[in-house]
Amino acid sequence: MIRPQRLQNRLFLSLLPDFEYFYALLSRWRDPPGNTTLEEIRMKFDLKSMSRKELEKLKVDIDKALVKVTQKEMKAARDAAAKAAAAHGFSLADLASDMPVAKAAKKTPKTKSPPRFANPADSAQTWTGKGRQPDWFKSAIKAGQSPDDLAI
After folding, report:
1. 30 — phi, psi (to 5°)?
2. pLDDT at 51
3. Exposed, middle or buried by CB within 10 Å (0-12, 13-18, 19+), for 140?
């Protein structure tokens, strides 16, 4: 009867040549398979020789892949947040219900300011007192009138 230890040794020795072959293959790789370089991508996809349809299909495929990766990362972040909340005895729903909800600011239409000054020579010309001074206001001030004299 063969002892279990000897059986394991025989099995290991029978697999050794295959292991050495795969080890030799693995040792030739400089980077792990997931780390592709820009040069490898260029070799795989020669963008200059691709037609417009091929490039558009590639773009659609890339967009789909980005959506999947984003969803995967969001799920991982959500799981990590749930784990952190659970470590403190809460759930994500508990934490989200306590957060204040930001209310959107109501946009009111801009009101027009009433005029504060009027041209004594032409009452149709008015000025609110904001922004650049009109020429008639400047000339009236140079002529010696005070802003109170021009007030409506």
Report:
1. -85, -40
2. 86
3. buried
